[in-house]
Write the structure tokens for this entry.
Amino acid sequence: MKLVIATGNRNKIIEIKNKLPDEQHLEIIPLSDFKNIPEIIEDADTFTGNAIKKARVIRDFTGLPSMADDSGLVIDALNGEPGVFSARYGGEGLTDRDRYLLVLDKMKGVPDYERGARFVCSIAIALPDSREFFSEGFCDGRIALVPCGENGFGYDPIFYLPEYGRTMAELTLDIKNRISHRGKALDHASVIIKELAGR
């Protein structure tokens, strides 16, 4: 079974490959293998809505089974921001660092007990025969006062995990894949893919 991963984010590809079943019946194809990829406007108001839109567009474009995810940070004190706008928070042209510094600026003065947040990941798999599959994962934590850690990407340096006493960016890839929102969503997706690949 060939499976196109509908993302251009290299860090996501690494995490996904680390989680998907290592089987001879599964060939993972990165989106970068294709040219003239259609632009996908992520305008849904839910993570699942954006994920299935991406998976469907890439499935239709390549004619192959496609998997896409949409994920982001949901902060209680900011009424759910950045949410589905996590990758575009603050406007176009900002770096990951710019975005998490913007979050920290908006969170100035918010006490520790009100800094609750969660990472959310929705995964959609779209097959050429029109079947679709979904999985979702969550990771609860809180927003740190200052960024810490060099691992990971996105908002990882400011996402603090009390049970580890570290931010997501201070964890090894193995630990992150086990506890992260994407890791949990991929656990379920890998079961689905394994069943599909074995048919």
